[in-house]
Amino acid sequence: MSTITRTWRNLRRIGLKEYAHQMMNMGDTKAGTYIATDRYGNKYYENLDEELPLDKPPTEDAVLRTGQRTWELPEHRENLTASRAAFKTYST
After folding, report:
1. What are the tens digits of pLDDT across the range 2-24?
2. Distance from C-alpha of 15 to C-alpha of 18, rounded to nearest angstrom
3. Which of 12, 15, 48, 10 is nearest to 29 (CA)?
4. Is 44 strand, coil or helix?
5. HSE-up of residue 57 (Cα within 13 Å, Cβ side)
6. Cα first-last separation, the chain
7. Which end of the chain is more exposed for a tag (fewer CB within 10 A), N or C?
8. Residue 72 pLDDT greater than 60, yes or no
9. Are 7 and 15 in contact (CB under 8 A)?
């Protein structure tokens, strides 16, 4: 949760439409410079006023550039909740 002064400052920076969108989706306001988007569509922003600056954008990170970590799945797996293929527990 942000302070009221940060919320008002971000409202002035990002505008009323984006402010309403962020409050509905995240419950907090964020303002900053667009840095990159990953393969899943997550957007990364940098705000030098409130946070420590990134040394490199996520697209130039050595770990992310190599591809995948050892614990990551090779492909994104769809969430099967509420489908016929969802995991169901049963007693024996």
Report:
1. 688 878 888 888 888 988 888 88
2. 6
3. 10
4. strand
5. 11
6. 46
7. C
8. yes
9. no
How far apart are the C-alpha atoms of 70 and 63, rounded to whole Å?
11
pLDDT for residue 1 is more than 60: no
DSSP letter (8 states) at residue 78: P
Question: 10: burial class by Cβ within 10 Å (0-12, 13-18, 19+)?
Answer: buried
List helix spans (H) across the chain.
Answer: 4-14, 16-25, 62-65
Is pTM, for the whole model, over 0.70? Answer: no
Residues with Cβ within 8 Å of 40's Cβ and at least 6 positions away in sequence, in order, are 76
The tokens for 65 are: 């550039």
- How far apart are alpha carbons 59 and 36 in whole angstroms? 7
76 Cβ contact partners less than 8 Å away, ≥ 6 residues apart: 40
| CB-facing half-sphere around the CA of 26: CA atoms within 13 A | 12
